[in-house]
């Protein structure tokens, strides 16, 4: 037979000849906290699964994220937009594709649309690309010789700005503290568990 130990916190009040009913408001509060904990744990789990899934997809299919910090690709991909790119062999690139390549002089990445493709006689796997931003009147002054390049698959506005904001040191520190507190709170024993036990006889 199992009997539950009733603490002062869990016991109901006696009034005259009334009957004490254990649980009461304490049980209701514990149930609400339990549901909130379940939601927090579920959210943490979903975020973890999505993060792991993205890392695996990025590794398997050569995916990466590009954030647009200038307006040269507006209005298609305005400032603050984010895009998912896939590393693609130069031989598979086509005119009209949007690719990210390093500038020959500075090495800084530039993401523009391909307007011309030329073969490289000495390197069959390489291509000489002429790029132009959608908002630019002229093609880039330099061409880009590549054997592969990240090609934009899909883009969305605003998400890039959110991603950049989330990567600022203050936001990352605050997020880390909040996540740690949420995990600790979600895993902390409830008050009912701490004060009520089951005795087997």
Characteristic terms for this protein:
alpha+beta; Umud Fragment, subunit A; 4 helices; 201 residues; disordered C terminus; 4-stranded antiparallel beta sheet; 26% strand; disordered N terminus; single chain
Summarize the structure.
By secondary structure, the chain is an alpha+beta fold. The chain is about 35% helix and about 25% strand.
Largest sheet, order of strands side by side? 4-5-6-7
Class of one domain, according to the CATH hierarchy? Mainly Beta
Spans of at least 5 consecutive residues with low confidence: 1-21, 196-201
Got a strand count?
9
Helix-strand layout with pairing:
Blueprint: E1 2-4, H1 24-61, E2 63-67, E3 82-89, E4 98-102, E5 109-119, E6 127-132, E7 144-146, E8 148-156, H2 159-166, H3 169-187, H4 191-195, E9 198-200
Describe the 3D structure.
35% of the residues lie in helices and 26% in strands. The protein has helices spanning 24-61, 159-166, 169-187, 191-195; strands spanning 2-4, 63-67, 82-89, 98-102, 109-119, 127-132, 144-146, 148-156, 198-200. Among the domains are: 22-55; 66-161, Ribbon (Umud Fragment, subunit A), CATH 2.10.109. It is an alpha+beta fold. Helix 1 crosses helix 3. The longest helix has 38 residues, at 24-61.
